[in-house]
Amino acid sequence: MAATPKEETLNDRTHSEAVMADGSGVTRLTVTTAVNDHPAWSPDGARIAFTSNRDGNNQIYIMNADGSAQTNLTDSPAHDFLPRWSPDGSRIVFVSSRDGNGEIYVMSADGSGQTNLTNSPEDEFRPVWQPQP
User: Fold this and answer.
1) Is 79 contained in some domain?
2) What is the pTM of this model?
3) Which of its termini does the chain have fewer beta carbons within 10 Å around, N or C?
4) DSSP 3-state assignment of 80?
5) 131 secondary structure, DSSP code
């Protein structure tokens, strides 16, 4: 199933599905007993970033819009979650507990260059990208 702007990603905490906005065309994307949540479509509709605990703790994964090529991007002993794509699709912002509390990180869409953006003693959650003017 090719992704279009009319599709949405549904999630019941154990698997993710793609569905047309009118409710038709439901396609299961993840098949695992792990929790798979916080899906985010890439701006071009070709990929989905999501959180999964299939490796024992929350990690950021990416997959093609049809559910193929599911890949762990963060592979960290800490919890990584809430991925959000940059407007141009080149980067993903996410939350990580790798510094002992919730911090906002950014990485390239291939998982490289993971960088802490906030580095504070307070917890930061729910990152979003500011639209370009």
Assistant:
1) yes
2) 0.80
3) C
4) strand
5) P
Does residue 128 sit within a domain?
no
Determine, yes or no, domain membership for 130.
no
Single-letter amino acid code for the residue at 92: I
Residues 39 and 11: beta-carbon distance below 8 Å: yes
Main-chain dihedrals φ then ψ at residue 62, nearest 5 degrees:
-135, 150
Helical residues (DSSP H) of 50-103, grouped into ranges: none
**29 in a domain, yes or no?**
yes
pLDDT tens figures, 81-91: 999 999 999 99
Tens-digit pLDDT profile for residues 21-79: 566 666 666 666 677 888 898 999 899 999 999 889 999 999 998 889 999 999 999 99
| 18-25 CB contacts, 8 Å cutoff, 24+ apart | 18/48, 18/65, 18/67, 25/1
> What is the domain range of residue 14?
7-116
Is the pLDDT confidence value at 100 over 80? Answer: yes
